[in-house]
Every structure is written in structure tokens, then in C-alpha cells.
Design goal:
Belongs to the truncated hemoglobin family. Group II subfamily. With 128 residues, the chain is mostly helical. It has eight helices and no strands.
Length: 128
């Protein structure tokens, strides 16, 4: 059994990213980081990434190669404010999943560490 299965499989990850992008769509500064008019392709990529990361299908790598998260995010100014906005919407999305306390903690910990690792530009005060 993988975390993918333990979390609830495809439906859980589909709901997570659907709820996350619902928040992104209404967050003008964060939405501006997404170059595509339609958030659907970004939603699908994130879902595939999460599914693969947690032990599900390897569709992400089959279609896009190695995730290389830092490299893929370098073209965008990921400031502490953008990180915090991303985390706000992601944590709100996790709230909708009804995971066990252990899995909820596991997912939130991963998302927080990932968000902090992708900051690549200082905030207005010069801090990361």
C-alpha cells in the first residue's frame, strides 16, 4: 500500500488540486504567475505530480520527464508572499479532503516544505 492509496487515490488528488486552483483563480497576484489563460493544464500537471510523488501512476514523468521543481519554477518570481498565498490556498484545499490526522499532517508537512524550498526571489524587504 502506498500513501497514494492511503490518501484515497486519484479522487483525493483531483479534489485537492481542483480546490486549490479554485482559490488561485480568485487570488489576482498569485494567478498572475500562471501564464496560461486556462488553469486546466496547470491543474492536470499538479495532480499528476502529486499522484506520482505519493506513489501513484508515473504519468507525470512519462509525459514531462523528471519533475525538476526548482528549475521549472525559476522563470517565476516566487517570493515569500507568493509562497504564503500558495500555502493558504493549498491548506484550504487540504481542509476539504477529510484525511486521517496522520495523513493530514504528512501532506501538510510536505506541502509546507515544498513551498518554502521553491522561494527564489526576495520580498520587498529583501528577505527570503
Amino acid at each position: 500500500m502506498t500513501y497514494y492509496d492511503d490518501f484515497g487515490g486519484h479522487e483525493t488528488f483531483a479534489k485537492l488540486v481542483r480546490e486549490f486552483y479554485r482559490g488561485v483563480a480568485e487570488d489576482e497576484p498569485l494567478r498572475a504567475l500562471y501564464p496560461e489563460q486556462d488553469l486546466g493544464p496547470a491543474q492536470e500537471r499538479l495532480r499528476m505530480f502529486f499522484e506520482q510523488y505519493w506513489g501513484g501512476p508515473t504519468t507525470y514523468s512519462e509525459q514531462r520527464g523528471h519533475p525538476r521543481l526548482r528549475m521549472r519554477h525559476m522563470p517565476y518570481a516566487v517570493t515569500p508572499d507568493m509562497r504564503d498565498r500558495w500555502l493558504l490556498h493549498m491548506m484550504n484545499a487540504v481542509d476539504t479532503l477529510g484525511l486521517s490526522p496522520e495523513n493530514d499532517d504528512r501532506l501538510r508537512d510536505y506541502l509546507t516544505r515544498a513551498a518554502y524550498s521553491l522561494v527564489n526571489a526576495p520580498g520587498p524587504d529583501g528577505t527570503f
